[in-house]
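The passage that follows is intended for readers who have already worked through the single-chain material. We present the inputs for a multi-component assembly, then the predicted structure in tokenized form, and finally a short commentary. You are encouraged to pause after the input and sketch how you expect the pieces to fit together before reading on.
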Amino acid sequence: MAYVVTAPCFGCKYTDCVVVCPSECFREGDQMLYIDPEACVDCDACRPECPVEAIFYEDEVPTEYQEFIQLNAEMAEKTPPIFERKTPLAEP
Ligand code: SF4
Ligand code: SF4
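Having made your guess, compare it with the prediction:
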């Protein structure tokens, strides 16, 4: 099991989640972040930090965001790690 980043993350300019992760799980995509499910230790630190509630525990991902479970796993292998807060993630 792991935590999963979902659609509300698109275009986040704050990346508040990244700095609290003890396990360097976050990966930076063009439009959103992803969590590497292999690295995530289910600590729950990131979830309450996200201002738009984009992060869910895998078992609690809403039905409409189920595809993001697989997407995080796939994209985590293709995108670089991000460790520090960064602005902006995506310009309109
Ligand atoms: S805090 Fe993290 S998960 Fe939440 S929207 Fe911003 S980058 Fe995405
Ligand atoms: S649950 Fe913990 S280990 Fe997993 S991504 Fe969030 S902060 Fe990192």
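Commentary: The chain has one domain: 3-76. Residues 3-76 form a domain with the Alpha-Beta Plaits fold (CATH 3.30.70.20). How closely did your sketch match?
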